[in-house]
Amino acid sequence: MSQSKPIEVPHTLLRTLHRIQEQRTDLNGAIGRVPRQIKAAEALVTTAKAAVDAAKEELKKARLNADEKQLQLQSREAHVEQLQAKLNTAGSNKEFNLLKDQIAADVQANSVQSDEILETLEQIDVLGEKLSAAEAELEQQEKQCSQRVAEIHEKQERLNENLAKVNEQLATAEAELPASVKSDYLRLTASRGDEALAPLATDSCGGCYQTLTTQTINRLQLSQLTHCPNCNAILYMPEDLRVR
Fold first, then answer.
1. Which one in 141, 155, 177, 232 has a CA-CA gap of 20 to 30 Å to 60?
2. pTM of the full predicted structure?
3. What CA–CA distance (Å, rounded) separates 238 from 244?
4. Distance between CA atoms of residues 7 and 153, nearest Å
5. How far is residue 219 from each of residues 6, 12, 230, 231, measured CA to CA in Å?
6. Which tens digits make up the pLDDT trace of 47-59?
């Protein structure tokens, strides 16, 4: 019973296919990173916007606090005026002294309140500067993000153009494969990409580093289609390899 003739595939072709497959993998990887790169650029803008929003909220609270203290001061000052009016019409020394003590207490409280208002107004000035700085940072981040995203899109276009060229080169090289090999090759590359092929590394598979038998290496030296018995990659001889 005759044995089927071994299928021969030139090592030069397999080397070319592996090189192009690796280029294709690298390009697809770079293209796949584009959305993450854009997201990273936009994240800086998001952080800057959050800082602006926080600064605005902080300034708003400080202004509301100042307004509230101003109202409290005005109310207490009006109360002091009312007490002073009553002081002039006090019917007894006891009432006079009570009114006087109350006026003194309110005046002291007003003094403290005035100091607190001044501190709050100073804080508002500081917070206003903080907001201005945050808004300037946001403007800068938005500008840089716009530039960065534009650069990423330009790079993406170049990557897509290069990928189209690589795919053309790959199709041309794959057309040289024997028909009996091509379906197996396409199945492997569809699932494993460039890892579907591997060079011989001295006496091992360059993909999984499994040591190969002498018989396997001999078949490979004869340009016979050879798969790694461990990872099933299609093996080929690299140009610079010296087999012991």
1. 141
2. 0.73
3. 14
4. 45
5. 9, 16, 16, 17
6. 999 999 999 999 9
